[in-house]
Amino acid sequence: QVQLVESGGGLVQAGGSLRLSCAASGSTSSIIVGGWYRQAPGKERELVATISSGGSTEYADSVKGRFTISRDNAKNTEYLQMNSLKPEDTAVYYCSAFEHPTLRAYWGQGAQVTVSA
User: Fold this and answer.
1) What are phi and psi of 115, to 5 degrees?
2) Cα–Cα 20 to 30 A to 114, which of 18, 19, 38, 70?
3) Longest dimension (CA), the chain
4) Rounded distance, CA 7 to CA 14, Å?
């Protein structure tokens, strides 16, 4: 079992920055992929970024160069650093973790990010 607790959402002006944190507990050694997704009203959930257990990362084209996903294994915490935020980044952001060997997905509770123009 893996539990994910998110923090760091809030309101920020366009061009500003926020850092989301996702603290994991439970069988964290079983996680092989972590990631962040977001969902805006009227839109499907969108993959934002992923990070593998080996540290490789991938990003959606819409956030490349602005967002950075990282993990602090000592703290069992995953981060999404969001810079140069745009109003279109406004969404609820969810962290995720995929477990080995079952590939079961775990999700955080969601964090609202609102970017004002």
Assistant:
1) -115, 120
2) 70
3) 44
4) 20
- Confidence band (pLDDT; 50, 70, 90) for 31? confident
Q: Contact at 8 Å (CB) between 115 and 10?
A: no
Query: d(Cα 42, Cα 20) in Å, to the nearest integer?
Result: 23
pLDDT exceeds cutoff 90 at 82: yes
Q: What is the mean pLDDT of residues 106-114?
A: 98
The rounded Cα 31 to chain-centroid distance in angstroms is: 15
Q: Say how far apart CA 108 and CA 97 lie, in whole Å.
A: 9
Q: What's the rounded Cα separation, in Å, for the pair 55 and 13? A: 31
Instruction: Give the pair of three-digit tokens for residue 85.
Output: 């935020």
Sequence-distant contacts of 81-86: CB under 8 A, at least 24 apart: 81/17, 81/19, 82/17, 82/18, 82/19, 82/20, 82/113, 83/17, 84/15, 84/17, 85/12, 85/13, 85/14, 85/15, 85/16, 85/17, 85/18, 85/113, 85/115, 86/14, 86/115
